[in-house]
């Protein structure tokens, strides 16, 4: 009998020991789960804060670029630039033109890249809709032209074409605004796009840049 009682006591002791060990494992698992969950939440919160901060910084940079003057930019009084629709040729006082009377049909300017010269009277109408027109002549390097084609190609309300008789190798025009840049990597390129693509100079903001003239476009 004494041996049976001893054996029973041993079993109870082992069972109690196993029960305590299982409880300890459960506590450890709960602690690990809580710790991992907290780390994941903290990571998500931190990542979300990083994204928000980055977006805020980019927005502030864009706003600053939109307000800052562009070095060597030329401006014309937008109110003095004609906006009549005409069917005859127009002699513009600047090359490329930055505004004035124009044809009633605009050049497609939804990131359109033209390999051949385009009619000025149609391009000016695109500027009226808030487009930025990138032009170049034979002095522009092939690398710069390619980079600018890529930029225009992914930018709605922009277009690009060669203008052989312009003064600068690469020029950017908007309604009443124009700048000659040193190359595709010139910081004034991004600044001009940021400031004038559908910018405050636009006489007809939101007007279409598709459905016009554009049979020479290369996508």
From TrEMBL:
<dbReference type="Pfam" id="PF11303">
    <property type="entry name" value="DUF3105"/>
</dbReference>
<feature type="compositionally biased region" description="Gly residues">
    <location>
        <begin position="209"/>
        <end position="219"/>
    </location>
</feature>
<feature type="compositionally biased region" description="Basic and acidic residues">
    <location>
        <begin position="8"/>
        <end position="26"/>
    </location>
</feature>
<feature type="region of interest" description="Disordered">
    <location>
        <begin position="1"/>
        <end position="26"/>
    </location>
</feature>
<dbReference type="InterPro" id="IPR021454">
    <property type="entry name" value="DUF3105"/>
</dbReference>
<keyword id="KW-0472">Membrane</keyword>
<feature type="region of interest" description="Disordered">
    <location>
        <begin position="200"/>
        <end position="219"/>
    </location>
</feature>
<protein>
    <submittedName>
        <fullName>DUF3105 domain-containing protein</fullName>
    </submittedName>
</protein>
<keyword id="KW-0812">Transmembrane</keyword>
<keyword id="KW-1133">Transmembrane helix</keyword>
<feature type="transmembrane region" description="Helical">
    <location>
        <begin position="31"/>
        <end position="52"/>
    </location>
</feature>
